[in-house]
# Entry
Amino acid sequence: MDHFSGTSIQQTDTGPSDSVVKMLIQRINEDQTEHEYRSINEFESILRNNIILSARAMYQSRINFAVFAKSRCNPMYWQLMGTGGFLLRQGVKPSDAIKDIFINSPYYAFECATAMVIIFYNAVLNLIGENLFNQIFQNIYLYGWHADPDLGISAQYAPIIPGDVVYFNNPDFSFLTPEWRGENAVVLGDGTFFGHGLGIMPAEQIIFNLNRMRRPGAFRSAYLTNSVTRPNINQLAKLSNWQRDSSFNKQKSIVIHHNESSISFDYYKYLLSLFTNI
# Structure
């Protein structure tokens, strides 16, 4: 039987407007303190639930949408790079930095692919606990779909499951507002989706909003693609059951600074393949 130890999220007094975020954080803490997982299916179920809770917490926060050029972050935890990415500051615990995005949300603004990666990190953190999270994810850099290899993000053609990230493509987006080229969205399981910058709504409403941002003369509608993006459940379950040597140096992954907001994971992998095949 696999055994995992969770760690509570620290709360700060952020005012009455953040009461819903606090409620969601409390719900996560109640579920994650000390638990034995009977199977990989149970691990996956709880991780997916955490992804949904993290998406709802982001929706209830005061984080803003911003293109890379206008990104912002809390300088106590992150260094804002010229690319619009957030680099974890030296001496800062990765768990503290991820939690701060939700706790001190007015300090933050980023685009929707970055939002999905943050949601994944937060969901994993709340499942495996701070100590192990800080061992595994020591050098977080937030930029679009770039993520630590141990998160194991991949896209596949598979039935949609709550906790997946899907992509709404807008092929005739206006070149004046390229951030509306599409929308990454978390499947919430109740017929709605969370898209950073749009909010929580059904697929039809997301498509309606994207269609409003098409260029003049456009005739192609936005649509939900059939690709789903997920962290690697099996890999994370294995990592959650052992203690990594703190001196372990993992191979650094390549970062593609594409400066294109709201792209799909499939398109990011395409850009990555172009770079690695040179």
Notes: The chain has one domain: 2-276.
